[in-house]
TrEMBL record:
The protein's name in its UniProt record: Uncharacterized protein
Annotated InterPro entries: GHL15
Pfam annotation, one family: GHL15
Length: 82
């Protein structure tokens, strides 16, 4: 019986891909964030799955909110943030 690395994700190139995608997913989170919302960015549940990766972009101050998200229902039934 062959044993595999059970419990963590194959990480070939994923750290750089994670850093490249951070800005988009962080922005999506911030659009709908409420008080006491938390953003955790990694690619799995274990320490080997990105929990200890340094993301300099996450250290930048966010500033105050620009306003409340307002949604408008379009004819196709989808919501659009304005």
């Amino acid at each position: 019986m062959k044993l595999y690395n059970v419990g963590f994700t194959k990480t070939d190139g994923i750290e750089q891909r994670s850093k490249d995608q951070l800005e988009y997913y962080h922005a999506c989170f911030l659009i709908g964030a409420q008080p006491y919302s938390y953003f955790l960015w990694n690619w799995g549940c274990n320490l080997k799955d990105g929990n200890l990766v340094n993301y300099p972009a996450k250290q930048k101050p966010l500033g105050s909110p620009k306003g409340v998200l307002k949604c408008e229902k379009q004819m196709d039934g989808y919501l659009q943030g304005i």
